[in-house]
Design brief:
Tetracycline Repressor, domain 2, about 70% helix, mainly alpha, 9 helices
């Protein structure tokens, strides 16, 4: 049976998207090759038609996760007035919806400790994604000078990442919302 020329690219993207969701939900080991391939309806052997090894899949799935969160946050910011775009980012990032669905969110909220322990080669690739994340968010950050915007980015994102991590530990939705609301209020009042 012959496939359309774009079939392989479509299957590849489906594998990457599934692995990206799994990695954000279950950690770096969550993107087990057998599970990812099973979910996409392929065999374990078919994996090597798309990737040289599991690290390639992990890197592509992380790139997809960063691209997805950056696109979502940039979209929220672009729907706001330029002077308050950063507030839209804070509200979107610290929403209960985002907190309750790690598979759609920022990979840093679930993976930061694991990413800090990856091998040197992967760490360089991940650093490039972090720099891209920061660079895409800087135009929306409060501050007049580039250095002020960068300081705002690091302060705000560190606070938001920590708030999401803590909120996800809590069993009750009301408790989670209290953590998120506290961080949201703090950031919206202090920048």
């Amino acid at each position: 049976m012959r496939y359309r020329p774009e079939h392989k690219a479509e299957v590849h993207q489906k594998i990457v998207k599934d692995a990206s969701r799994r990695v954000r939900t279950e950690g770096l080991n969550g993107a087990a090759v057998a599970a990812v391939m099973r979910d996409t309806g392929l065999t374990h052997g078919g994996f090597y038609k798309h990737f040289g090894n599991k690290d390639e899949l992990l890197l592509e799935s992380l790139r997809e996760a960063f691209r997805e969160i950056v696109d979502n946050l940039a979209h929220a910011a672009e729907q706001s007035h330029p002077e308050t775009a950063w507030k839209a980012i804070v509200k979107a990032y610290l929403s209960p919806e985002y907190c309750d669905h790690p598979e759609r969110g920022c990979p840093l909220t679930t993976l930061a400790p694991e990413l800090a322990r990856v091998d040197k080669r992967m760490r360089g690739e991940i650093l490039a994604e972090l720099v891209n994340y920061k660079d895409r968010m800087l135009p929306f950050m409060p501050g007049r000078r580039a250095v002020d915007k960068e300081r705002s980015f690091f302060s705000m994102f560190s606070t938001m990442i920590g708030a999401i991590e803590i909120a996800r530990l809590l069993p009750e939705p009301g408790m989670r919302e209290k953590v998120l609301a506290s961080a949201r209020d703090f950031l919206l009042r202090n920048f």
